[in-house]
Amino acid sequence: MFPFPQFYAPWCAHCKRLEPVWSHVAQALHNTNIRVGRIDCTRFTGMATEFGVSSFPVILFLNGDFQYTFKGDRTKEEIVNFALRVSGPPVNQITRSESLENLKASNRLFFVYVGDHEGPLWETYSYVAERFQPHGFFYSVSPGIARKHVTVTSFPSVFVYKEKLHYFFAEPLNNELGLEYLNASMFDWVNVERFATFPKVTRGNINELLQTKKYLVLAVVEENKLQEIPTEMLVFRDMIQSVIIKNREKFHKHFQFGWVGSPELANSIAMSVVPLPYLLVVNSTTYHHHIPEDDPSQLTAEAVTIFLEQVHNQSAPRYGGNTLPVRLYRTYFKARTSLAEMWYGNPVLTAVLFGLPLGFLSLICYSICCADIMDANDEE
């Protein structure tokens, strides 16, 4: 049995929002060898200390001597897939053709090694699969089974299945380059291909996307509480998606496309309140961002293509960055935005939270200053 605990605190608002999701996770994993639980860190402080938990909520998966921390989106699908991945071996073997067909129907993205379990490519694949086990599904299959589903020109080989298409690892097997070079090449390839072509970008996965070292092309729209998007924003999002679908060979190497359903995330990147819909391109290395000069709502696929070419050849204006003044301003912007949201949400509570401490501070300062003046008058 594998323990899968959530460390929480009763006063934590994020923990309370996770409660219904965690209940669904427990139901989904009920018939597996994974035991889902919750630990109240205000009561069992020793457990929190033992596992190094200092913030809430924290989701850990314990597999023998290995401890995995969940860092993705706190949705049922993401959490369940994470638990299933780390509960098994890094590479699962497919022994039947029907199993591969079922995987294609149920899993939108996974990696497959085709060939015998020997040689430098297999060693590299096993090494990379172990490193990325919390983030993706990895399988191995014999050439006979693979031929029934995909055209494989040479063995051994590795491909990723996503969006109902197969993309092969194209690094040549050159013994002169060595195993270290092959490890680095496949590591970088898996790190890039583990994401869908046009994923939803959230605060939970944006840091993982930044590790691709690509430009992030973000179509910014706004979802309501039912995750519905207004028609005009949906048209804009689909138009941005069509650019990468039609120009994958041109843009895939340097750009990772995605869409944002929460304007607050885009606002924190741009350090301003952006209009909707909006197009934002983030340099994942320097943290600069680019915006088109034209009104984003009037952009066409051709205009977006030209804009991305300008970004790639570094002729487009850039903003932001990661310098100290920019970091200070971003901190100020986030604090100002959070305070404004608190005020609009509950002005009375906000006034009490900030008014009382300021009132006491004013009284203390007034008492100190007045005491000095009164003492001076007495001496005179």
UniProtKB/TrEMBL annotation:
Its main location: membrane. Residues 1-88 form the Thioredoxin domain. It is found in: Membrane. The keyword Nucleus does not apply. It holds the Pfam family Thioredoxin_6. Keywords: Membrane, Transmembrane, Transmembrane helix. The keyword GTP-binding does not apply. GO terms for cellular component: endoplasmic reticulum; membrane. This is Thioredoxin domain-containing protein.
